[in-house]
Each structure stands twice: as C-alpha cells, then as structure tokens.
Write a structure and sequence with these properties.
The chain is of the alpha+beta class. It folds into two domains: 144 residues, Aminomethyltransferase beta-barrel domains (Alpha-Beta Plaits, 2-Layer Sandwich); 71 residues, Elongation Factor Tu (Ef-tu), domain 3 (Beta Barrel), CATH 2.40.30. 15% of the residues lie in helices and 35% in strands. The strands form two sheets. The chain has a six-stranded antiparallel β-sheet. Strands 7-10-9-8-11-12 form a six-stranded antiparallel barrel. Strand 9 and strand 10 form a beta hairpin. The longest helix is centred in the first third of the chain and has 14 residues. It is globular. The relative contact order is 0.16.
Length: 271
C-alpha cells in the first residue's frame, strides 16, 4: 500500500534526486565518515544514512545503497548538495568521485510510523507519475512528523532530538560523531527537547512560542497546516512537558493546542 491523499491514486514525491560515489576508495571513505557500516549494507536496498558533526549534530541525511560499482545516494536535493560540499571538505588523498544522478520520484509505503527513519521509500527515475502538490506534501509531512531543514530544524539540532539514532550502526568503528552517539546510548540518555505534533482548533501562526500556564515550554516550527478539524503543527517542546495530551498556549494568537504525537528515538531494551 502507498500513502494516499484524499483517496486518490497515490502520487509520487518530486523533491528527491540521486548521486553516487565512485572510485576505488569510495567504501573506505564512506566508512570513516558516515553513520552506516558500509561493509554490512545489503546490496541494492537503500538505507537511511547520516553525516554528523563531532557533537552528533545533523549535517545531512540521505539514503545510501551499495552497488557493485558505486555507492548510490538518494535524498532531498538540498540535503545532497550540502552532503557533497561537506564530503569534499573531508576528502584528502582518496580516489573518490561524486557523480550527479537524475531527478527521482519516491513512493511512500503506508504505515503508522512517524519520522524519517522507519519510513519505507521506493525510488525510481522521474516519469509521468502524478506528484503531490506543495499543500499535500506539507500535510503529509506534518501528519508523519517528517522534519525538514530550515523548516523544522537547523544546525543546532542533534541526532537524538530528530529520532535518528537507529540510522547510526553500532559496533562499526569510528565515524564522525560516533563517540557522542555511543556515550549517550550507553547511558540511556534522552534529549532535552522533542519534536511534537500539536493540534489547534483555531488558526495559529508559524514559529509562535508555546507555554504551559506562565512557563515557556517550546515553539512552533514553520510547518503549520490547516485541516478539516483545525490546524496541525510541528513544534519543539521541552522534554518535561512533552507528553501526549498536554495542553499548550500559543503566545501571539492566544490559542490552546494539544500535543497529539511525539517523535522519539528508538526504545532500547532494558538489561
């Protein structure tokens, strides 16, 4: 089953593009930088992958696929462009080349999951498939809690806040940000803020501050969409107040909203 919009034929997303890393040193180069264990990637099956900064801040997220002659990369166009620039910074004597691919469409498989990590995407060359409109894309992102850079997060947000630690393979050895990721994992640490989905019955504005009684507890992002039952928005919430059912007040519009979903990292089994 694919994601459906208003019970119509499931359209494709047109925001994705492709690239690839080629050259004899491509796998060793990617292994020392990226969050995935390149040697253990199943062939021809794209997996969400990250490039992190030293403090586990998210520099880029994309999908990576291991092929016999290249590492195929899929991602939102702006994310891939940022990835290319950063990889050039880290390249020294390795024989690695970046090759630009074609524009892609991506289909989303139906599921109840939230966040980028568990989402099942199928990529293909752009063709005659119908596309999501910008309004439908925004609605889907808010419903599924798919944060975008510059809309919902920036360089200050880390991999824990964005619920992406499952895209960081354990026991793969060193990569950028690995020390912080493993330290937080080993201590079962939690981020100080979470991305939440908040429902309002009346109109609110993007980026409004949120409070509980008189205490500021978070703020809306730029992702605000009108629905048949009101307005739905993504928001960053202080961990202490980030619980489903908590009521918050938007400062400028003076409207009351209710937290309906929370984007959290994977639950680790108790030992």
């Amino acid at each position: 089953m694919f994601y459906r919009v208003k019970n119509q034929t499931p359209p494709s997303l047109r925001i994705f593009s492709a690239a690839q890393l080629t050259g004899p040193d491509r796998e060793s180069f990617a292994q020392r930088l990226l969050s995935r264990d390149i040697k253990k990637l199943p062939p021809n099956l794209p997996k969400l992958c990250l490039l992190l900064a030293a403090q586990a801040k998210l520099l880029s997220y994309f999908w990576i696929e291991r092929r016999s002659d290249a590492l195929r990369l899929y991602g939102i166009e702006a994310e891939l462009q940022g990835l290319r620039e950063k990889l050039e910074f880290y390249k020294f004597t390795e024989e690695v080349a970046w090759e630009v691919g074609s524009d892609l469409t991506a289909s989303l498989h139906e599921s109840e999951s939230v966040g980028w990590h568990p989402l099942e995407l199928r990529f293909k060359e752009s063709g005659g498939s119908p596309y999501l409109s910008e309004a439908e894309w925004l609605e889907m992102r808010v419903q599924r809690m798919l944060p975008l850079r510059d809309w919902d997060f920036d360089s200050s947000h880390n991999v824990f806040e964005l619920g992406l630690t499952d895209a960081c393979d354990e026991n793969k050895g060193c990569y950028i940000g690995q020390e912080v990721v493993e330290r937080v994992r080993s201590r079962a640490g939690r981020p100080s803020r979470h991305l939440a989905q908040t429902h309002f019955e009346s109109e609110i504005q993007e980026l409004e501050e949120l409070s509980v009684e008189t205490e500021k507890v978070g703020s809306l992002t730029k992702s605000v969409v009108k629905t048949t039952t009101g307005y739905l928005a993504l928001s960053w919430m202080d961990r202490k107040f980030c619980q489903v059912g908590i009521k918050v007040r938007a400062k400028l519009s003076n409207k009351i909203g209710v937290i309906t979903k929370i984007l959290e990292g994977p639950k680790r089994p108790k030992t």
